[in-house]
Amino acid sequence: MVAAEWSTAAHVCRYLSRADGYPHRSEGEAALLDHVPRGARRILDLGTGDGRLLALLHVDRPDALGVGLDVSEPMLDAARERFAGD
Fold it and tell me: pLDDT at residue 44 above 60?
């Protein structure tokens, strides 16, 4: 049921239009970043969504290779768009 919701572009667009307003989002991301070892060379982001966490990891650890996986094709499209210039 949940995967079906995330398969629609409309649902993903609604989520992404509100995501920056979600309370504690940046605190959660910072906590996740703190748990990634400094020497990590490869990072797998399961449920990457639009790739926001991978983008933050890329800034913080530019030498690491990040790979994102998600069941939602519209979210993966958003992630691809985010990294289109890289």
Answer: yes
